[in-house]
Every structure is written in structure tokens, then in C-alpha cells.
Design a protein that fits this description.
The structure holds 3 protein chains of 3 kinds.
Chain A (H helix, E strand, L loop, with lengths): L8 H16 L16 H15 L5 E3 L6 E3 L5 E8 L9 E8 L6 H12 L18 E4 L2 E4 L13 E4 L6 E3 L2 E2 L2 H9 L21 H8 L9 H5 L1 H5 L6 H11 L9 H4 L13 H5 L6 H17 L6
Parallel strand pairs in A: 3-7
Antiparallel strand pairs in A: 1-2, 3-4, 5-6, 5-7, 8-9
Helix pairs in contact in A: 1-2, 8-11
Chain B lengths: L17 H11 L1 H19 L4 H5 L2 H28 L3 E2 L2 E2 L2 H24 L3
Antiparallel strand pairs in B: 1-2
Helix pairs in contact in B: 2-4, 4-5
Chain C lengths: L1 E6 L3 H13 L5 E5 L15 E2 L8 H11 L6 H20 L14 E2 L9 E2 L5 H13 L5 E5 L1 E9 L2 E9 L5 E11 L20 H8 L4 E2 L4 E7 L10 H4 L3 E3 L29 H13 L4 E3 L2 E7 L4 H8 L1 H10 L9 E10 L2 E3 L11 E3 L4 E2 L12 H22 L7 H17 L8 H15 L3 E2 L1 H19 L12 H25 L8 E2 L7 H4 L1 E7 L5 E7 L16
Parallel strand pairs in C: 1-2, 1-9, 2-6, 9-17, 16-18, 19-20
Antiparallel strand pairs in C: 3-5, 4-5, 7-8, 8-9, 10-16, 10-21, 11-15, 12-14, 13-14, 14-15, 21-22
Helix pairs in contact in C: 1-4, 1-10, 2-3, 3-10, 5-14, 8-9, 12-13, 12-14, 13-14
The chains are: A alpha+beta, B mainly alpha, C alpha/beta.
């Protein structure tokens, strides 16, 4: 930019908002957290919108990167997204920032975030990839509920605002990005692979498995590792040592597979594993793939109890 | 690098979500389950040692407490039985038994056992 | 020093990693991926994986289907190796736990697929890629020697004296820039569908590996061949799998007419017929759509013209059993139920047949550098890939590249040359400069969008020389502007704007090669249709396009003869008995 102080465009507005934050200091709300407070962020965001407007040709050219069509925002309604911002080193705690984005009927929350990233504030950080509910990247808390943002549509929220926060229960790396390495360690711990003994079949022959045997574990194999269940689980949020819904469901996926010869009893029959579960059941409610981890856990409780009462019984 | 922000522990977590609140309420009904056992032991003790169980049980506060306890334990039992299908998956010839059948079976068994007990308790000797 | 460094954690990369670990547990192997491996785009593959297993099928028939489907641009030695090894790889996946759909007696089930003369497509309902990727990923956890660099973005290959020596990568989470020395590098970053505006591809598919190799001096091959899948949901571009048609779905125009019968694809039948009508190859189906549109027989929607995919006659039970994900996607993302409603669809960019030029072991002309999967072009897909060939491809050639790289690393044990450090430092400075921010210039999103529309306009289903020539110039201009693109994010932690900027550069490099190759190929073949050169020209163009990066950064295109073993070029016949 040639004139650094001229508040033209989004950048100036964002900077102004940033400066405001610094001056306000810790403890005060940077930018806007209350929908009715018009100053602060909201103002900045609006200013940003106007800035972009001036840059364009009369109307704001709005193009979502994924969507291949232009949204002429002349009379279009807008909706406010209140988005968590957290920049380590700059912010001592996360704050909410408001952005006005076009209220399009077929937009998902993720489209709104991409609109912000592409047109209003390039510094917003979040994960996404497939936008078809299968890669598991874009889980966030939407109005307090863990959701896949690619499959959560504006139409659900009327005129808004919509509050978008990082998944609860995980350390926040930045903005909407959380740390999920803990899950991968746990997943590895339950040996999520087919355990076989003895000689392997040659690569010309498959193991036979009837549709009923497939059905016995199939549901638990549908987990996309999106972390919504961990975020919804109060046990995990209070005690990060809890093995957690998805890891146990995936352990069950192999335990119930007719081809598996392993035994995961020692890693599942623990206070931090299935017995840590108090059966709140929220994991199952939020699961976008109907894996029903709560069921996986309760079923293993029964298995483990039988094994303890009847020590000679093997699965 | 440990720059990640770790939110402080939320001590009122069970108020953040209606389902959490219901869950905690259900957990609290366990107290009344415990009371029911204590009450039973007091009554048995009175019977075995020649006391009058009715005198204890007839006190207004005990009656009041037991009414509440009955409601709480019934709630606990009903929700418990309703959750059972989640722990027991029954497949018949590839067809998974729907939840309502298992729940229905549980409730029927419960009623039957209750009826049998009631028969022995209430029959006039 | 790492023995085998794999860039990309999708199906090809993970299969390669396991191959290395199994070849020699003493070798150090690392998977560097810009997303957690289970997020890779392999996860989105739906329909299935082809491998000859059924009685009555033969390797030769799979070869012929593949070669004719690819309009004779496939290297037939590669196709033969691929077809022979595909069943073995699919069984290997079965041994690792992949939940393949089964017949009543417990054998693996197969389904028909577009352009295939026999039923040979293995499937896990219609989430085949998802199950394949998660099976591979979870199986890699068994191998302690496979080290993962999750959410690291590779920005440069270090090449000295014709040999690869490692990569420079950014740890996205911390912003830490590291030179990772390696004896061999396997590129497995997937395709580049995101260079187009309307694509089934995930956001991460930005052609990174192709650009890395291209900049390092390796040639890309057949980049002009872009596959349009005939059935994408309008607006989102979400894929509705070919399996929907294999299970009996019909494509109908606005009059309810099964229009494919007008385009030399056979006569409509009640039950799906192999290599006919809706089970024709993707290039021909997408081209038929354009003709329907020109005849005014498509339906206008706010998101462009569509035709309909009709699954209603399949009934709820079959849909739920065979293609449940189709129903799930339609309900969640299109607000309709395929059991009772027509699904609006239109052609959508799905796959790039081209990629880094490799031999049958995935080796590129740069010593120690390999490529596998959609990033690579071996080539088995020729001018048009058949549906369900790409999943076995990532397995067969992932394994081959892994094995070959392991052997190379065992044979070449010397220490790193000093050039590694110097090149690494240069790249670090470049990235640090980018991260200082730039408050002028164009928005990344605006440049990306210009690039996408330029390419769609010129290198879509039908192309002309004049438009392509213009696109070559526009893309060159955009590439210059991208150097001065605006960067607001100066943070070290999870700076996605920095990554987006690097991806914009890789996409522009790849986009240029697509336009240049398409301009150079003055014929029509498979997915490359030139309205100014409507016929296939085997005399001049029975050859691969090979594109190098000239010293000035512009693409320079040459030709490389196709390998023909047993199937001389012939006519592509579909639906005619």
C-alpha cells in the first residue's frame, strides 16, 4: 500500500482493529463480541466491506473460491459471523471478531469462512479440504455445537448471527485451528490394524467374509476422525487422558472384524479407556457419520465385564 | 512449541448444554438409589431385631423422602433400560434387532419381576 | 539423513511408505504431508477399484478397455504391468483390513463401471477411497519406522548435479522452515483439479508435486488431458459417483430423454449394459452434455446448465445398500432424495491424466526423484482415464515407487553435498521474505479466480487454438502478478495465507503447462477436443506431450512416442455390438 495510514481497503481496517486491540489491552474485548456493539470489530469489518467496495466497480465483487459464480452484493442481505480469533504471541486469550458476509441460501458456514478469508481478512486461519463431509478437517463449534462446517448451512440460522469457535476440548493453535495430535497417539495406541497370527494368505487369495460378518463392524469403520465426538465428550474435556470415543470405536472396528486375531482387552479394559466413559451419549449425537461411538464403548464394557467374570471366555 | 492456548477448566460445564444437564441430573438420582438401599437395610434391621419397621417408615419425612426417591429411582431405571440397546446388539440372521424391541423386553421383564415381588409382599398371609 | 522422503500422505504416498518399510526396516522413511494423511483427497474417491478377479474376465480385456478408453495414448507396457499387479494390490488391501463389499459366500464383490467390458470394479459401498485411505493410514501406524511430518508443506526440491538431495518444507503449525536432506524423494501429492473453478477436487489439490518436479527440471507429461466427470452436483461440484450409473442410473435431459443414445453410445436398455450408454467413458459422456446444451436440451439453473441423473427406479433399498453416500450427499448438500427426486448434474473437472513423467518404477529423469499416483504420468491413463483405474493405480505405482526408491537409497549412501545447505538457505530467505507481508498487489483469491476462469474458458471440454494461445499469455501475466500478490498474514503460527500463496504459484505453473500442451496438440483425442482440429491424428500425435520449464520460466513442449505392445491404434467403439 502506498499510503500506510489511509484506511482504504480491508487491510487498513483490519490493522485499525488490531491497533485498537493493543490499546485496549488485555481483559477488554477486542473487536466485537456482542452483536449489538457497533464499534470495534463490527465497524472494522463493515469498513472493510466498504473498502473493498471502493476498490471494485460500484458493486462488491464477491466470489467464493470454491463456487465459481459471482455474488453481486448490491441488495443482498448479509449475515454476521462471529469468529474466534487467537494469534499466539499477540493475544493472551481468544476473542470473537464479527464479519458480515452475504446471506446466500445455499452457502454453508464454511463458504462464509472462505468468503472472509478471500475477501475480507486473509489472516483468518482454519482447516478445510473436501467440502463434502468426508475428509474430517472442518469441524468447529457452530453456535456452541460441534459441527462439520461444510455441511452446516446458513438456512439453519435465520438472520444470525452465527458464532463460530474452535472445537472445545482441544488446545487452540490459532484462530479456529486446534491441536489433534493427541488423538492420533491414542489411535495408534489401540493398534488400529488387522492383527494376524500364523502364515499369511498368498496375494492371490482374499479372506472370506460374509456380508453379515462385514456388517458386524462396518459402522465403526465409518469414522472420519473429525474430532466432533471428543469435543462433545465432557469426560474428555475434563480429563484428556480418556482414550475417547473415536479411538475406542476404531478399536472395536478391528475387535469385531472376523479377520482380526488380536486382543485389545488390556488397552480397553482401563479406567482411562471404556470405564472412563460415563455414557453421556453426546458423542453419538454429534457424530456426522452415524458411527455411534457410545454404543461401541458400552458394548465393550459388556465384553470386558464378561471377560472379568468369566476369565476363561475369549471373544 | 507450546504457544497453543489451553482454555481453563470449565467448572460449570454441565450447564453449557441441555443434554449435559439432563445427564448430570440423572447421575444425581443415584443418590436416591443409594437411599433406597439404606432404607431397606434399616427396615430389615428393625425386623430382625424385633423393632417396628412401620414406626420408622411411617414418619412423615421418611414418607416424603421415599416418594421423591421412588420418582428418582423410577426415572433412573427407565432411562437405564432405555439405554440398554446401545450396549447389547442382537442380530438375528443378519437383521439387527431394533432398539424398541430390546427396550420393550427390558420393561416387560421389569414389570413382571415387580409384579411377582408385589404378589409376595402384598398377599395376606 | 532420510533414506526415502515421501511428499504427500494420500493413497500413493502411504502405499509407498509401507513398501519401503517392508523392503528394508533399516531404512528411514518419512511422509511429509500438508494435511493429516487421513484428510488426503483419496478419501473422496467413491465408486471403486478395478482389478481382474471375476470368472470370465481376463487381464487382456482389462488392458484393452484401458487402452481404448485412453484413446491409444497409454503406454501399453505400463498398462500391462498395472493390470497384472492390480488384483494383487487389492487383495493386499483386503489382507490389511479394507472392508470390501462382499458376495453372499464371502468373496469380494465386483460391480460394472464406465468403459469396462467386464464387472471388475471392487468396492466398499460407495466410499471406496475413504476405506482404502483409512486402511492404509491405520496400517502405517504398525510400522514404527515410518516417520510422519503432518501439516508440513514442501516448497522446494533440492536438486544438485541431476540428483535429488532433499526438500525444503515449512512446518505449518510453527512456521519453522527446515531443509530435510534425503537420499530419495517420492512425489505423491495428487492432482491439480483446483486450477479449474468447478471441480470435484478438494481444496488441497493444487498440483504441488507437479510444480516441484517441473521447477526442478523434470518434465511433465500429457498435461492437456483433463478429465471432466459427467456427474457433479451444480454449485458445489461434489461428485456423484459413476457407481450410481453402474447400479442402473440413467442420464436424462430436460425432456426426460436418455440422450446418450444420440451420441454413438448404444441404445438404451432397462438394465445397465457394459461399455454402453451410461457406462460409456467419461470423456464421451461429458462431450455429449455439451452437445445437449447447444441443442437447448439441458435445464438452466442459477449455477449453469444441468441434466438429470435418475436413480428413482433403483428403489430405496438398492440405493441404501450400494450407493448410500450418494443419498447422504444429495440430502445434505443438494437438499433432495435420489430415491424420489432427480439429481441435477453437470460435467465437472475431476482428474488430470497428465503428471510428472516417470518410468514404470515411478522414476523421473532426475536421479533419486520418483512420483506416483495422480501426480505422476506413467502413463496408464492416456487421453482419458477409465473410472476405477485410479485407485489401483495409486497402489500399484505407489508400491513400485517405494520399492524402487528403497533400492536406490540402499545403493547410494554418500553424504549430502554442500549445495544442499546453500539451496536450503536461499529458499528459507525467500519464504521469510514472503512472510514479511505485502500490502499492495492483487488478492490471492482474485488471481486464483482469474486463473481458474482463464483455464476453464480455454481448456474446457472443447478447445480452440486461438483461445488457448490467449490463455497462455494471460497465465504468464498472472504469474508475474502473483509474485507481487498481497500477503496480510505475517504470523509464523499456522499461516494459511502463506501456504495459499505458495499454492497459487504451483497452480499457475501447472496451469501454464496445461494451456501450452493443449495448444501444441493439434488434434482431438480423448479428453482433449480441439474444434479447430476435430480428428485424431496418429501420424503426428500418437505421442505424449512432454513439457519442460525453459530458463525464462515459460513452458516448452515436445513430443515423446507412445509405447505400443499388442494393441495397435483403432477406433473406440461403445454400445455397438
Amino acid at each position: 500500500m502506498t499510503e500506510p495510514d489511509a484506511v482504504s481497503g480491508v487491510d487498513g481496517a483490519a490493522k485499525q482493529a488490531g491497533r485498537g486491540a493493543n490499546e485496549e489491552g488485555e481483559g477488554t474485548i477486542r473487536r466485537v463480541t456482542e452483536p449489538d456493539a457497533v464499534s470495534g470489530v463490527d465497524g472494522a469489518a463493515k469498513q472493510a466491506g466498504r473498502g473493498a467496495n471502493e476498490e471494485g466497480e460500484g458493486t462488491i465483487r464477491r466470489v467464493t473460491e470454491a463456487k465459481h459464480h459471482e455474488v453481486r452484493q448490491t441488495t443482498t442481505r448479509t449475515i454476521t459471523l462471529e469468529v474466534t480469533r487467537y494469534r499466539p504471541g499477540q493475544d493472551s486469550a481468544p476473542v470473537l471478531e464479527s464479519f458480515d458476509v452475504p446471506l446466500m441460501d445455499d452457502w454453508a458456514v464454511l463458504d462464509g469462512l472462505n468468503y472472509i478469508k478471500d475477501q475480507l481478512d486473509g489472516t483468518l486461519s482454519f482447516r478445510w479440504s473436501c467440502r463434502m463431509g468426508i475428509c474430517g478437517s472442518c469441524g468447529m463449534n457452530v453456535n456452541g455445537e460441534p459441527r462439520l462446517t461444510c455441511g452446516t448451512f446458513f438456512t439453519e440460522f435465520g438472520d444470525g448471527p452465527i458464532r463460530i469457535e474452535p472445537l472445545k476440548g482441544f488446545p487452540i493453535i490459532r484462530d479456529l485451528v486446534v491441536e489433534v495430535d493427541d488423538f492420533l497417539d491414542k489411535l495408534r495406541h489401540v493398534k488400529p490394524w488387522l492383527i494376524r497370527e500364523g502364515e499369511e494368505l498368498p496375494l492371490t487369495t482374499e479372506h472370506a467374509q460374509t456380508p453379515a460378518q462385514l456388517e458386524a463392524y462396518k459402522q465403526y469403520s465409518m469414522c472420519i476422525n473429525c474430532m466432533l465426538c471428543y469435543s462433545a465428550c465432557p469426560v474428555y474435556v475434563l480429563d484428556p487422558d480418556f482414550l475417547g470415543p473415536a479411538a475406542i470405536a476404531l478399536a472395536q472396528r478391528y475387535e469385531l472384524d472376523s479377520r482380526d486375531m488380536g486382543d485389545r482387552f488390556d488397552m480397553l479394559n482401563l479406567d482411562e479407556a471404556v470405564w472412563g466413559c460415563t455414557f453421556v451419549g453426546e458423542c453419538t449425537k454429534v457424530c456426522p457419520k452415524h458411527v455411534d461411538p457410545a454404543e461401541a464403548i458400552q458394548r465393550y464394557k459388556v465384553t470386558a465385564a464378561m471377560r472379568s467374570i468369566l476369565p476363561w471366555s475369549r471373544r | 512449541m507450546t504457544t497453543a492456548y489451553r482454555p481453563p477448566r470449565d467448572h460449570a460445564w454441565f450447564l453449557r448444554n441441555r443434554n449435559y444437564t439432563v445427564f448430570v441430573a440423572r447421575e444425581l438420582t443415584s443418590v436416591f438409589v443409594a437411599w433406597a438401599i439404606v432404607f431397606l437395610m434399616i427396615v430389615i434391621d428393625a425386623v430382625l431385631n424385633g423393632g417396628d419397621p412401620a414406626a420408622f417408615a411411617g414418619q412423615p419425612w421418611v414418607i416424603a423422602l421415599n416418594v421423591v426417591a421412588l420418582a428418582a429411582t423410577t426415572f433412573h431405571a427407565v432411562t437405564f433400560l432405555n439405554l440398554a440397546p446401545t450396549a447389547t446388539v442382537i442380530r438375528l440372521d443378519g437383521y439387527r434387532l431394533p432398539a424398541w424391541m430390546i427396550q420393550g423386553g427390558n420393561h416387560s421383564a421389569w414389570l413382571l419381576i415387580s409384579a411377582v415381588i408385589a404378589y409376595f409382599v402384598l398377599r395376606t398371609p | 539423513m532420510i533414506d526415502v522422503l515421501i511428499v504427500g500422505g494420500g493413497g500413493a504416498g502411504l502405499r509407498a511408505a509401507i513398501a519401503v518399510a517392508e523392503a528394508d526396516p533399516e531404512l528411514s522413511v518419512a511422509v511429509v504431508s500438508k494435511v493429516y494423511p487421513m484428510r488426503s483427497h483419496t478419501v473422496s474417491a467413491e465408486g471403486g477399484a478395478a482389478g481382474v478377479i471375476a470368472a470370465g474376465d481376463s487381464l487382456d480385456e482389462h488392458c484393452y478397455d484401458t487402452v481404448s478408453g485412453g484413446d491409444w495414448l497409454c503406454d501399453q507396457d505400463a498398462v500391462e504391468a498395472f493390470v497384472a499387479e492390480a488384483p494383487r494390490e487389492l487383495i493386499q488391501l483386503e489382507h490389511w483390513g479394507c472392508p470390501w463389499s462382499r458376495e453372499a459366500d464371502g468373496r469380494v464383490a465386483v460391480r460394472p463401471f464406465g468403459g469396462m467390458k467386464r464387472e471388475r470394479t471392487w468396492y466398499a459401498a460407495d466410499k471406496t477411497g475413504f476405506h482404502l485411505l483409512h486402511t492404509l493410514f491405520q496400517t502405517t501406524m504398525k510400522y514404527g519406522e515410518i516417520r510422519r511430518y503432518d501439516e508440513w508443506y514442501v516448497t522446494k526440491l533440492i536438486v544438485d548435479d541431476g540428483r535429488v538431495h532433499g526438500v525444503v518444507a515449512v512446518e505449518i503449525r510453527t512456521g519453522h522452515i527446515e531443509t530435510i536432506a534425503a537420499r530419495t524423494v517420492i512425489l505423491a501429492t495428487g492432482g491439480c483439479g483446483r486450477v479449474f473453478p468447478f471441480t470435484t477436487n478438494a481444496a488441497i489439490k493444487t498440483g504441488d508435486g507437479m510444480a516441484l518436479a517441473y521447477r526442478a527440471g523434470a518434465p511433465l507429461k500429457d498435461m492437456e488431458f483433463i478429465q471432466y466427470h459427467p456427474t457433479g452436483l451444480p454449485f458445489t461440484g461434489i461428485l456423484i459417483t459413476e457407481a450410481a450409473r453402474a447400479e442402473g442410473g440413467w442420464l436424462i435431459n430436460k425432456d426426460g430423454y436418455r440422450y446418450l443414445q444420440d451420441y454413438d453410445l448404444g441404445k438404451p436398455t432397462e438394465k445397465p449394459k457394459l461399455r454402453s450408454m451410461e457406462l460409456g467413458p467419461r470423456d464421451r459422456l461429458s462431450q455429449a452434455f455439451v452437445h445437449e446444451q447447444r441443442r437447448g436440451r439441458t435445464v438452466e439453473t442459477p449455477y449453469g446448465p444441468v441434466v438429470y441423473l435418475d436413480l428413482r427406479h433403483l428403489g430405496e433399498r438398492k440405493i441404501d445398500a450400494r450407493i448410500p453416500f450418494v443419498r447422504e450427499l444429495c440430502r445434505s448438500y443438494q437438499n433432495l432424495d435420489p430415491a424420489t427426486d432427480l439429481i441435477p448434474v453437470r460435467p465437472v473437472v475431476h482428474y488430470v491424466m497428465g503428471g510428472v513423467h516417470t518410468d514404470l518404477d515411478g522414476a523421473t529423469p532426475i536421479a533419486g526423484l520418483y512420483a506416483a499416483g495422480e501426480t505422476a504420468c506413467v502413463s496408464i491413463n492416456g487421453a482419458n482415464r477409465l473410472g476405477s483405474n485410479s485407485l489401483p493405480e495409486i497402489l500399484v505405482f505407489g508400491r513400485r515407487a517405494g520399492t524402487a526408491a528403497a533400492a536406490f537409497a540402499q545403493a547410494h549412501r554418500q553424504a549430502e553435498p554442500p549445495a544442499v545447505h546453500a539451496q536450503g538457505e536461499d529458499e528459507r530467505r525467500r519464504l521469510e521474505r514472503a512472510r514479511e507481508g505485502n500490502h499492495g498487489g492483487d488478492r490471492i483469491a482474485d488471481l486464483r479466480e482469474r486463473m481458474q476462469h482463464t483455464l476453464e474458458g480455454a481448456a474446457g471440454i472443447y478447445r480452440t487454438g486461438a483461445e488457448l494461445a490467449k490463455a497462455v499469455d494471460t497465465l504468464a501475466e498472472l504469474r508475474e502478478r502473483a509474485d507481487g500478490a498481497r500477503m496480510d498474514d505475517t504470523s509464523a503460527t499456522f499461516n494459511t495465507e502463506l501456504i495459499n500463496l505458495q499454492e497459487l504459484h504451483t497452480m499457475l505453473d501447472v496451469a501454464q503447462t496445461i494451456a501450452a500442451c493443449a495448444l501444441n496438440r493439434r488434434e482431438s483425442r480423448g479428453a482433449h477436443q480441439r474444434t479447430d482440429y476435430e480428428a485424431r491424428d496418429d501420424r503426428e500425435f500418437l505421442a505424449h506431450s512432454l513439457v519442460y520449464r525453459a530458463p525464462d520460466g515459460a513452458p516448452s513442449v515436445g513430443l515423446l512416442p507412445v509405447t505400443i505392445t499388442r494393441w495397435p491404434p483403432g477406433e473406440r467403439v461403445y454400445g455397438r455390438d
